[in-house]
Amino acid sequence: MIERAPIRAAHLGLGAFFRAHQAWYTQLANQLDGAEPWGIWALTGRTPTAAEVLSAQDCRYTLLERGPEHDLPAEITSVVRASDGTDPERYRTALGDENVALVTTTITEKGYLVGDDEHEAVRAGRPTSALGRLVDGLRVRHRTNQQSLAVVPCDNLTANGELSRRSVLDLAERVDQGLAEWIDDKISFASTMVDRITPATTAEDIADVAALVGWADRAPVITEPFSEWVIAGDFPLGRPAWDRAGARIVDDVEPYEQRKLWLLNGGHSMLAYLGLARGHQTIAEAMEDQVCLETLRQVWTDAAPVLPFSSDEIDEATDALVDRFTNARIQHRLAQIAGDGSQKLPVRFVAVQQARRAKGLGIGAAFPTVVAAWVTHLGTGEVNDSQAEQLRRELDEAPDSRKRARATLAFLDEELAGDDDLVAEVAAGL
Q1: Closest alpha carbon to 187 in 206, 174, 172, 176
Q2: Does domain 7-249 have CATH number 3.40.50.720?
Q3: How far, rounded to the nearest angstrom, does the alpha carbon of residue 412 sit from its chain's CA centroid?
């Protein structure tokens, strides 16, 4: 039997990225000489399937770093328990445990959009969202041991710690004012920047891993060799030695968030919409298309003047991204990246436009192309974006490309919709 670390952390959302990133960093930290071991209790998001598969193999799994030329497997055992995250008994026990010092989350953009009646569901003990389950779990902690806890969101959102804090407090205030006051006093919320491309695992990947490691791992995770984690925040009850395992602890994570959102994530979204329109299926395929590659360079050129990094640092970052994006052995599918553009475009592109305007800079070359490519995508059968349904209906009724362009810009940002030059450029792109 493998000796497992004691459970000192919980995680909400047992997805591939968590297992390739937070669990992997914790594994590395646990293996360091003199480091205190930390075990993770991972709870699924919507269905129990991932927990059932992982539990059937004692919660150990293979992380496969897929480089341009070869694969490097590593066994991960930092996840000690995996459970159905919709089961109140499970998540309440995990979050209420006084030995659990922190909870990481991968809620994502739309996960913060909870229903107007979610506070009533929490009061009744039947929350329907990850955010509701987090508040419900903190309510148990408040009633039992009242120990502090660090919440560590790992989403591609600017100031994700503050967003998580505000969202939790807003919901908690509608549930119980006393609970909200205790959370405000006792619970810390770290901000993070996370980066590691982790495509969905395929049946072929599962077969490849089984042949490589010699056992039938049904829950491997495939990822690129590159990883980055930048963290700012307090950990009142401690944390794993993530900094010794490669994470960076800083006072302010915002510059790193902007660099990642505007260069990597913005580049991904652009390649997804333009690449799909041009018949490509993966990031690596789109990178072989000169039109896509040139537009990607334009995305980076537009963002560079409003990022707080030197030109040399920007060049180093974009050179690394080209290497990562052209790794054809990472099958990062454009259709997967294209989902939920209504939440992604504001932070990946509108924010760049706002920053450029604040500096007195022009529109830039990439933004109209990106918006036009997204609108084109919304007219296909590949859309996975419930928040954009209203916009799709408006676009269907718009009589010409100029009205379609203005409606789209108004959906993203009312101020941009008032820029006639920008409307004209988006209309021309359409």
Answers
A1: 172
A2: yes
A3: 20
